[in-house]
Write a structure and sequence with these properties.
Blueprint (H helix, E strand, L loop, with lengths): L1 H10 L6 H9 L3 H15 L4 E5 L1 E5 L28 H13 L4 E5 L8 H14 L4 E4 L2 H11 L3 H11 L14 H7 L6 H13 L3 E8 L5 H16 L7 E9 L6 H5 L7 H14 L5 E4 L1 H4 L1 H7 L6 E4 L18 H10 L3 E4 L14
Parallel strand pairs: 1-8, 1-9, 2-3, 3-4, 5-6, 6-7
The structure holds iron/sulfur cluster.
Iron/sulfur cluster binds next to loops.
Length: about 375
């Protein structure tokens, strides 16, 4: 039976093929898939505990030339009444709030701004670190890095090096959506393609940056393209230098399309809870060289996230102090510190607070 063969491969540490992953998704009874993923979770993370984090999303601007059909957040630079840029006074308030809540990391992102070159980000990063030298910057997804390199006429490596010198600590896996150019051309016509995303991450990993990998599914892609995405990430991770962190975690979430042009053009049915759990489980099983799987409670809700902790996930991500992008397309869940910890306990695990690199986080606000 196919299930027994796959189970034996996983127990023997052999990576799943695309065909096996598709069989698990399409034909394996979900309960058996979840049980297999849960076993794999404990092979990667044997402790009966689930990590969480305190960080804060900040968007530096909403101006973007990418024109993704699923994005209600962005506008053109010419839309003067809509375009905004975060001021230094606003950064200071947000960073002070973050430290008061016990966190020390900002997830800083925007879009592909036509006028912001490397000098803008160097100045921004240095200014933010001057507000609080303990601040950690997890900033700029690969499409942003690729765009900055292009308009600054620099190589990806030079761009990353200058950003690091200015204060960049780690790279989020943003902008991956589905790493397949058929899909990308339809949903994000002006965004760098799959190879660009992969090449930025490959360079970042070779330079020792830690990062995360993401996937946004449930729109116009096929299940085959989701599996192709996972296998591309696994291949990329297998190329990182042995002594470098590479992808520390993987996070996938169903695309939020409320009120977007994508929803106007395509009939997009919301995925069922079981399909969202199957994506967590398949991710855990295919990505056998990425240690942590994070569940996106922001998009699937805390109750389903608790179930996902039994289907392969071992991380609840961050409390949400501020989020503007997926919230503007329908994600409405919110969680504070006590709610995240309670959800983890209710799921039967001990919560542990982590840094971006999955070491235990020591809180200064409680000292
Ligand atoms: S999702 Fe990001 S890259 Fe796409 S339009 Fe919105 S801000 Fe721009």
């Amino acid at each position: 039976m196919k299930y027994d063969e796959i189970e034996a491969r996983i127990s023997g540490g052999i990576s799943l093929s695309a065909e096996e992953a598709l069989w698990l998704y399409n034909e394996c009874p979900p309960v058996k898939l979840f049980e297999l993923a849960n076993r794999s979770r404990f092979l990667h993370n044997p402790e009966k505990r689930v990590s969480w984090q305190i960080d804060r999303n900040i968007n530096y601007s909403n101006v973007c030339i990418s024109g993704c059909l699923f994005c209600n957040f962005h506008c053109r630079v010419s839309e003067k009444e809509k375009a905004w840029e975060t001021s230094m006074d606003e950064y200071k308030i947000k960073i002070d709030e973050l430290f008061a809540l016990g966190g020390d990391q900002v997830l800083l992102q925007g879009g592909l701004h036509p006028n912001f070159d490397i000098a803008y980000y160097e100045n921004l990063f240095k200014s933010l670190k001057a507000i609080n030298p303990l601040l950690k910057l997890n900033a700029l997804g690969p499409p942003e890095v690729w765009h900055i390199a292009r308009i600054s006429k620099l190589s990806i490596r030079e761009t990353l090096q200058r950003l690091r010198d200015a204060g960049l600590d780690s790279l989020p896996g943003a902008g991956a959506e589905i790493l397949n150019d058929r899909v990308r051309k339809l949903i994000s016509p002006a965004k760098p393609g799959a190879d660009a995303w992969i090449s930025v991450m490959k360079e970042a990993h070779s330079m020792g940056f830690g990062s995360t990998a993401t996937m946004v599914y449930g729109h116009i892609e096929t299940v085959e393209e989701r599996v192709e995405h996972l296998i591309k990430l696994r291949d990329l991770q297998s190329q990182k230098p042995d002594n470098m962190p590479g992808f520390r975690a993987f996070i996938c979430w169903p695309m939020q399309v409320k009120g977007t042009r994508l929803a106007e053009i395509y009939k997009i049915e919301p995925l069922t809870p079981v399909e969202n759990l199957k994506m967590v489980a398949i991710s855990r099983l295919v990505l056998d060289n990425i240690r942590h799987i994070q569940v996106s409670w922001l998009t699937i809700g805390r109750e389903l996230a608790k179930v996902a902790l039994h289907c392969g996930a071992d991380d609840m991500g961050s409390i949400m102090i501020e989020e503007n992008v997926v919230s503007s397309a329908g994600a409405s869940y919110r969680s504070g510190e006590e709610e995240i910890k309670q959800a983890i306990r209710e799921a039967g695990f001990d919560p542990w607070l982590r840094n971006q690199d999955y070491t235990p986080y020591l809180r200064r606000d409680l000292e």
